[in-house]
Design brief:
The structure is a single chain. The chain starts with 12 loop residues before the first helix and ends in a 10-residue tail after the last helix. By secondary structure, it is mainly α. The protein has a two-stranded antiparallel ribbon with strand order 1-2. The longest helix has 32 residues. A hairpin with a 2-residue loop joins strand 1 and strand 2. The protein has a single domain, classed as MetI-like (MetI-like fold), CATH 1.10.3720.10. It has 14 helices and two strands, in the order H-H-H-E-E-H-H-H-H-H-H-H-H-H-H-H.
Length: 289
C-alpha cells in the first residue's frame, strides 16, 4: 500500500524574506486591479456631476439605469452601442482566427518542410518585425481604400498575412516538435494534410489557444485601425475613444464609464474559458526512446 507523503521544504531566512516581499507585491497589484474594476463599475452607477465633483465618493444613489441607457444613448455616427458590440465581435473573432490560422499553417510549413524560399519567408518575417508600424501605415491605408475593402467585412482579409509575432511563436513551437510523429503517420498511410490536422495540430492547441486569446485582446482594444478603415462600422474601442472626447462637453461621463465596464466583459469571459491555455503551454509527448 502506497502512501503519498508530502515533504515540506524548509526555506532559509533569506528565501522566506524574498517570498514574503514577492507575495506583498503581487497582492498589491492584484488588489489594485480589483479596486480599479470595482471603482469603474460604481462610477457607471454615478451621475455626471458626481463623477466630476466627487469621483472617488460612493454615489448617493445607484443608477443601474445607466447600464441600460448606453444601448440607446451611446451613439456614434448613427451607430448605437449594440451595433458597435457586434462590429467588435465579428472583427475580433474573425480577425483573430484568420491571423492565428494563417500564422500556424505558415509556421508549420516553413519549420518542417524544406523548399525554395522557406528561409527567405522566415527572414522576411523577422525583417517585418523590425519595421515600425508607422513606416507601412501610408501604404496600408492606400491599399485598403484602393481595394475597396474599407467599411466592409472584407476588411478581414488584412488579417491573413500570417507573418508577425504569431508566426514566430508557431514556428518556434513546431520546430521543437519531433518529426517522428509525422513519420509514424506516413507509415500508416496518412498524407501531409492528415498529419498536420490530426497529429501535429492537436499538439499545438495549447499555444494556439493562447495566441488566439492574445490576438483577440489586441483586436478588441484596437481603436486606431477601425477608426481609419471602418469609419461607418465603428467598434466598441473606436466608439469609446470618440465618445470619450465628447463626454466632457456633452455631460455623459457616467455613460462612458458604464460602456467601458460592459466592453471588458467579453474579454474576461474569453480569458476564463482559455485561462488554462494561457497559464499552461505544456505538451505531453508520446514517443518512447
Amino acid at each position: 500500500m502506497r502512501t503519498n507523503v508530502k515533504k515540506r521544504i524548509k526555506k532559509t531566512p533569506g528565501q522566506a524574506v524574498v517570498f514574503a516581499i514577492a507575495f506583498v507585491i503581487i497582492a498589491f497589484f492584484s488588489l489594485s486591479y480589483v479596486y480599479t474594476l470595482a471603482w469603474g463599475f460604481i462610477a457607471g452607477l454615478n451621475t455626471n456631476d458626481g463623477l466630476i465633483l466627487k469621483p472617488f465618493d460612493f454615489p448617493e444613489k445607484l443608477l443601474f439605469v445607466n447600464y441600460v441607457n448606453i444601448f440607446s444613448e451611446f451613439v456614434i455616427g448613427g451607430v448605437n452601442f449594440g451595433m458597435m458590440t457586434l462590429n467588435s465581435l465579428w472583427l475580433t473573432l474573425g480577425g483573430a482566427f484568420l491571423e492565428v490560422a494563417c500564422a500556424t499553417g505558415l509556421g508549420y510549413v516553413t519549420s518542417k518542410y524544406r523548399f525554395r524560399g522557406s528561409k527567405l519567408i522566415h527572414f522576411v518575417a523577422l525583417l517585418i518585425m523590425m519595421i515600425p508600424i508607422y513606416g507601412n501605415m501610408p501604404a496600408r491605408y492606400r491599399l485598403v481604400y484602393q481595394l475597396g475593402i474599407n467599411d466592409s467585412v472584407a476588411y478581414l482579409i488584412t488579417y491573413t498575412s500570417g507573418i508577425g509575432f504569431n508566426y514566430l511563436m508557431a514556428y518556434s513551437f513546431f520546430k521543437s516538435v519531433s518529426w517522428t510523429y509525422a513519420e509514424a503517420g506516413f507509415i500508416d498511410g496518412a498524407n501531409d494534410f492528415v498529419v498536420f490536422f490530426r497529429i501535429m495540430l492537436p499538439q499545438a492547441m495549447g499555444p494556439i489557444s493562447a495566441l488566439f486569446v492574445i490576438q483577440c485582446i489586441g483586436i478588441w482594444n484596437d481603436y486606431q485601425n477601425p477608426l481609419l478603415y471602418l469609419r461607418n462600422m465603428p467598434t466598441l474601442a473606436t466608439g469609446l475613444y470618440l465618445f470619450g472626447n465628447e463626454a466632457n462637453a456633452a455631460g455623459h461621463l457616467e455613460l462612458l464609464m458604464a460602456g467601458t465596464m460592459v466592453s471588458i466583459i467579453p474579454i474576461l469571459v474569453l480569458y476564463f474559458i482559455f485561462n488554462k491555455a494561457l497559464l499552461n503551454e505544456t505538451v505531453a509527448g508520446g514517443i518512447k526512446g
